[in-house]
Protein 1
Amino acid sequence: QSALTQPASVSGSPGQSITISCTGTSSDVGNYNLVSWYRQYPGEAPKLMIYEGSKRPSGVSNRLSGSKSGNTASLTISGLQTEDEADYYCFSYAGDNTLIFGGGTKLTVL
Amino acid sequence: QVQLVQSGGEVKKPGASVKVSCKASDYTFTNYGVTWVRQAPGQGLEWMGWINGYNGNTNYAQKFQGRVTMTADASTSTAYMEVKSLRTDDTAVYYCGRSQDPTLIDYWGQGTLVTVSS
């Protein structure tokens, strides 16, 4: 099964908003509200930022939000800060007890 | 606080096996699953599978079926992941994570680098 499709890179200036897309199919992203998003700094383990499409764990900034339309999930970060610069991965249930990550997106804060 | 502590890095030759451990603390091990994810150098995250901490039921990614075995010892709150018939492209950092449901990995281990080289 192929990875979910994410842009390789996105960038924005401090204070701006950016959106990272995660495109799957009607068998995964489109069929379940079970997309999560993870942030990963170089050399560190990933960290959960969004789960079940749009829910934020305790302690995660409300500048991050998740949504879904059809087969595409999205992560929006508003009021960009330098600390947001990292790699971001989407992760979805794909049926038959299978899960799949997106290819990852490198966010650069200019 | 919740912690997952993984075993140390390993260097293996092609064809060998490796077993990585993941010891959990400060939560009830049997109330959660453990997901295993790997990341090859410079590459993205790859889901390998999941084990139910309560009953030991497992789900593996298709590409790892038959070559990867995940087990859990509730008495020591430790999960294990064994990869057999190692290949050079198995060189990666292997992570364990606590899973409330399969897509929700809320705590992660520090990662274990497995290097496969002749």
Protein 2
Amino acid sequence: AQKVTQAQTEISVVEKEDVTLDCVYETRDTTYYLFWYKQPPSGELVFLIRRNSFDEQNEISGRYSWNFQKSTSSFNFTITASQVVDSAVYFCALSEGLGKFYFGSGTKLNVKP
Amino acid sequence: GAGVSQTPSNKVTEKGKYVELRCDPISGHTALYWYRQSLGQGPEFLIYFQGTGAADDSGLPNDRFFAVRPEGSVSTLKIQRTERGDSAVYLCASSSVPQETQYFGPGTRLLVL
């Protein structure tokens, strides 16, 4: 079974629209960590955020915000007022604290001018 | 400071040949990871080192794949008798300790003809 599911394969929006990328995870551990990474066309994975399972507080960083809900095992990512530079593939990942990350299959975001 | 570096950035080889891929982690990071990313997929875990030892090699697909980290810093991923199915981007990451954020290198794009 997939530990991280990103059901949206590709999303296209027009600049300045808000967009939410969904992430659903599965784990039996009580301690775990969730991450979002951005992979622009250049290919390098860029770290965006890390949350641990004990901190359900939502986080906002500029135009980016994250909604962590343990009740639905979701860790969704919202970009407000999207820009062309936000175009990339976004990955959600889960760590159970043992080293390896489980990545979702990614959501490709296209922001059109 | 310097990030994770990987060499070569691209490698083209023929089926049956041997290849070595190198990763230089962030200075001071004790944990080092290798992932493989196929086109349109998320990274898949291969192996992780804590110091010089492989703490988890459960992701290595078969015995043609081997990795070392003899001095606890630079790591080499070795692939024997390459097959066309080995073609992918091989990503290296490092973190200060296993449960912390992993920072990724630019990857090595391997093409087996």
Protein 3
Amino acid sequence: AQKITQTQPGMFVQEKEAVTLDCTYDTSDPSYGLFWYKQPSSGEMIFLIYQGSYDQQNATEGRYSLNFQKARKSANLVISASQLGDSAMYFCAMREPETSGSRLTFGEGTQLTVNP
Amino acid sequence: DAGITQSPRHKVTETGTPVTLRCHQTENHRYMYWYRQDPGHGLRLIHYSYGVKDTDKGEVSDGYSVSRSKTEDFLLTLESATSSQTSVYFCAISGGQGRTNTGELFFGEGSRLTVL
């Protein structure tokens, strides 16, 4: 079974600084996908970034980048130049094969607070 | 934004009563999912569907049933609600994996259920 671990229940960062949110995963499938979602206090789930297991380069989307270290089975999210609006819960997730419905398994989340 | 709506958005009910949550999509996506979100647990999969009348259990399926009679609708039923089923329920949809599809999930806005 797939497993996602987020070891940081809460993180604090100063505005304009960078922050790294940790995520490790465990799977025996050679093909998988890794996702990060943001959930602000309003409750909606917002897709941030995706990394495929065969992708050679780390994914980037604006201020978000995914530090993918396959051998270590880690997929950390890096947010550069933090903004107050980045304060939210962040979830790491892993996609199962299509034979298992392409479902996502989520970590428990990290609550990020950006201080002015 | 993916066309996905959940109803009702809020519901308070009593222990032992049946409850049905509805998820409706306008994207013609193959896969639909029901997750529940509880503090300290992230999002956990209840049931999912990979086509009309094709459903399967997730990791926390006890006490829940689902039905999908049309591509666009996925119903989650609590036959006899219990206080442990107080939670926020999210429906999600996905077009699955492929050349241009990452398997990203698009989420509804959530349904907050309180069982007294």
